Amino acid sequence: MTSTPRPDAFPTDPAPLTPAGRPVPAAATGTTHTGTVHTGTARAMRTRPRRRRATPALRRLVSEVRLHPAELVLPLFVKEGLTEPTPLRSMPGVVHHSRESLRAVVEEAAAAGLGGVMLFGVPAHRDATGTGATDPDGILNLAIADAVEAAAGRLVVMADLCLDEFTDHGHCGVLDARGAVDNDATLVRYAAMALAQARAGAHVVGLSGMMDGQVGVVRDALDDAGFTGVSVLAYAAKYASAFYGPFREAVESTLVGDRRTYQMDPANRREAGLEVAIDVEEGADIVMVKPAMSYLDVLADVAATSPVPVAAYQVSGEYAMIEAAAAQGWIDRRPAILESVLSIRRAGADHVLTYWALEIAGWLREDLTTSDRTNR
Q1: Residue 7's pLDDT is what?
Q2: What is the pTM of this model?
Q3: Which among 16, 17, 28, 67 has most CB atoms closer than 10 A?
């Protein structure tokens, strides 16, 4: 009587056969059969991407995108009448600065090697046309001069060019008799605001109002007044986003309603290309996508086609979500922050506006010091 072989007497993976039905020699396949177990697939596994991830040094060597302080811009809020900085409830770690504390943080940013600062003014008085924006003694223009002096050429001083912080209705422009934003009347105010900021010493004016024709009007105004060296950063693809919520607290916004008649529809991707093309044609030196993390597809599109540098703004809501989750212990704060900013750079941003700019610069410096010690 023939006994039935035990199942474990057979190889778990039979040896390959030639077309004639004979076993292929192991040496020809790079495959080894050791009794009952099929081990090794050398020829099929010549490409092993994990090799490049094996050590920190290898990962650093082949990294496609890196963070550097010079690619980071720190947004700063300066409030009229303050004698010391005051914290913002919805943005842990972010403050309203006094003029004195602004100078100190700009000094710190310059020493850290940041690429720039973006200034926002919070005035004590507001009116229908935002006259405080063009007042030489208005808080934003005074802050520009303070920052330029403190930076001493070591970083770029940018200023937000928009009326929303200065109007009593909270919109980014002048209203007509029906209460709608009057595009062309607003452009007149933007031109005057650009000149006020240029006279205060701004290196870059950041046009964030999303009015049609704003870049051309401001560029012409600057050039006609002799400020040909002042650059224009166009918020070219700025979306009507829910992620601006904490920012509204930061600038003490008086807005009732929304800005959907001038900021872009979050559903639209192709339209961003049109907005960017118009702004570049009108003379933008840099274009921006805002927000950043929820619009990485748009950012990648813009970066792939823009002939000028591309910025992206990691907005207040993106910042607040990570801070809130980290405070609850749901995510690891430092890796999450670094990954979030790295994702924006990976999508194509040449520089990133982020409220963590100073903190990230410090981490990068620590990492570099640790790496130097390790490699000695």
Answers
A1: 46
A2: 0.86
A3: 67
**Which domain does 254 fall in, by range?**
72-371
CB proximity list for 196: less than 8 A, separation 6 or greater: 133, 134, 135, 136, 138, 141
- Asked whether residue 27 carries a pLDDT value surpassing 60, the answer given is no
How far apart CA 135 and CA 149 sit, in angstroms, is 19
Instruction: Tell me, yes or no, whether 124 lies in a domain.
Output: yes
Q: Is residue 65 part of a domain?
A: no
pLDDT in tens, 130-167: 999 999 999 999 999 999 999 999 999 999 999 998 99
Query: In this structure, which amino acid lies at residue 353?
Result: L
Per-residue pLDDT of 246-269, as tens digits, reads: 767 666 677 666 777 889 999 999
Which residues, other chains included, contact 121 with Cβ-Cβ below 8 Å and sequence gap of 6+? Answer: 78, 79, 80, 132, 133, 138, 139, 140, 141, 143, 160, 165, 166
Please tell me the total count of domains within the chain.
Answer: 1
Confidence label for 242 from pLDDT (cuts 50, 70 and 90)? confident
CB atoms within 10 A of CB 70: 14
Predicted pLDDT of residue 114: 98
Q: How far apart are CA 115 and CA 156, in angstroms?
A: 6
Q: State the amino acid at position 344 in one-letter form.
A: I
User: Which own/partner pairs from 320-328 qualify as long-range (CB within 8 Å, at least 24 positions apart)?
Assistant: 320/90, 320/91, 320/92, 320/245, 320/246, 323/91, 323/92, 323/93, 327/92
Please give the mean pLDDT across all residues of the chain: 89
Please state, in angstroms and as integers, the Cα–Cα distance from residue 27 to each residue in 36, 37, 363, following that order.
18, 16, 51
Written in H, E and C, the secondary structure of 215-269 is: HHHHHHHHHHCCCCCCEEEEEEEEECCHHHHHHHHHCCCCCCCCCCCCCECCCCC
Measure the CA–CA gap between 343 and 292, rounded to whole angstroms: 9
Distance separating alpha carbons of residues 270 and 301, to the nearest angstrom = 9
CATH number at residue 142: 3.20.20.70
Q: Is residue 142 in some structural domain?
A: yes
Please, is 373 exposed, middle or buried when counting C-beta atoms within 10 Å of its C-beta (0-12, 13-18, 19+)? Answer: exposed
Report yes or no on 26 lying in a domain. Answer: no
